[in-house]
Design brief:
167 residues, mainly alpha
């Protein structure tokens, strides 16, 4: 997709790319923070789970080997998703993976009436919180992929096109 083929205005493109970068930065930062903290574990979060994934969360926390795998996948998944969003590399895979991961977070500890958590929440939310908003924003970004205009996906696409026309 070239810039001429898309129907984005310059302002739309700027803000879609900015949203992509901001969410990518947030997700990448979360992954790096976990990687650099040798004492970090998802155990505390999973022990807070009170909704439809609480049984799965209890199973994960009851098995140290499974917990280690989940911690590894969570940390490196966040890093890969964040880099994919920022760099525009395998962008749709990164955006959908980020959406799925955030939905798992949300389904473990949603801000619903009657559910109380020991960790403080960001503000008083009812049903909608920043995790849900960020998840939906990733779906929007996947639908309006800017990586084919501004990102490594665009660069790779141009290289493939050049290579394909030299026959």
């Amino acid at each position: 997709m070239s810039i001429k083929q898309n129907r984005y205005t310059s302002l739309q493109l700027i803000f879609l790319v900015l949203l992509r970068f901001l969410i990518g930065w947030h997700i990448l930062y979360e992954g790096i923070a976990k990687l650099l903290n040798p004492g970090w574990s998802s155990s505390g979060f999973l022990k807070e789970s009170q909704w439809i994934l609480s049984g799965f969360a209890k199973w994960v926390t009851s098995n140290p080997d499974i917990l280690s795998v989940v911690d590894f996948l969570n940390t490196w998944g966040l890093i890969a998703i964040g880099l994919g969003l920022i760099m525009g590399l395998f962008f749709r895979v990164a955006a959908i993976s980020g959406f799925l991961l955030l939905v798992v977070y949300y389904l473990n500890c949603p801000p619903l009436l009657g559910l109380e958590y020991s960790l403080p929440a960001d503000g008083s939310n009812l049903v909608v919180n920043k995790t849900l908003i960020e998840a939906i924003a990733l779906v929007v970004l996947a639908l309006f992929s800017t990586s084919k205009i501004f990102g490594l996906d665009a660069f790779i696409g141009k290289r493939r096109k050049k290579g394909g026309t030299k026959k």
